[in-house]
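This part of the workshop introduces the protein records we will be handling. An example says more than a description, so a record of this kind follows:
>
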Amino acid sequence: MNPINYLFRSRLGFICAFLTFVAAGCGGNLDPVLGTPGAGLVTTTPGTTTPGTTGPGTTGPTVGDTVAPTVTGVSPADGSVGICLTRTVSATFSEPMDPASISAANFTVTDNGVAVPGSVTYDAASRQARFVTTNAAGFAASRPFQATIRSGSAGVLDVAGNPLAADRVWSFTTGTQPCQVPVNLRSAALFGAFGGSAGVTNQGVNTVVNGHLGTTAACTLITGFHDASNVYTETPLNIGAVNGTIYCGPPAPGTTTTAQIAATARADAQTAYNELAALPAGSDPGAGQLGGLVLAPATYTSAGGTFDITTGDLTLDAQNDADAVWVFQAASALTVGQGATPRRVLLINGAQAKNVFWQVGSAARIEDASSMVGTIIAPAGVTISTSGQTAQTTLTGRALALTASVTMVNTTVVAP
């Protein structure tokens, strides 16, 4: 035999023997050339175990989710009173649930033991089951009700098939009024800012409007902005991005079409303003000062005509009701924050910016670096921040002025 071939074969045999020895020491078999797993190894994905042979005559255990789900929150709150008649009843779970098990058979509401007709849905993103009565007028007025989420194998189940450990039962008592629904903004809902018949002005280079921007005035009264198609009197120090479309009247780039779209939006904003103003007056828990308060969904009316959020932050608590609505009626003005003291509006327990409305009789002002929430409709204009301010001011909502202008300084507007 050729000496070179003999040396190669000898070394190859040694390597194969070594790999076989290592595989045996690890309790399995390896292909002597490729090193691939043999039958003695079981591969599983995280969180699961696949039964397989772990050795002669043995079988690995099956491991899965055996933890019972729990209800972490309910709405209305247990024992609450004065609940509006068209309220959604909901329960939030600790983990993802099997949607097929969330049904009207397992989630019931009763009036003195008599089942209330309703439909039940499950929202996977929030892990929330919701009961909505199909009675046209909602729940009966001034009555106690009991809600039940059923446990057991025939009750609600998590995605692994585990039932609740016990029924979840809670109660509430209705008031006499239907729930407030969001006002219909119609086409105005598409606008982050609208400057009535007086235009919209920006100062600073960090302003962004996520939504349309408009005015019924000529396009020359839009200053410091651009959209994807046109630039409106920007300077190196005044640049505002509109991630929608700017609608205004002639001259160019305004046209009769863009002017009509702006006019329709202005009319729709006026209709919404009138509807908000016509709602029955509510309470004024802070005598016009909303700072530091935690408010449940309702209509609030300033007895003195003004609302201020200046002594602290305002918190809006939806109490796990995703449909919760707040309406604030101020016959005169709205002020958020002070020059050196920004304030915030905070949303908790499912509150949504799209369901917060501010009907302001004259003008609204959001001071430097404050964080405001909701749709503001004010005939005499909306001012956001102060000239020269570099800190960002945020409005998660809309600034809709019916006659006067909207002015911004380094502002972020997000139309919900």
Notes: Residues 78 and 170 are 5 Å apart (CA to CA). Residues 3-25 form the longest helix (23 residues). Helices lie at 3-25, 256-277.
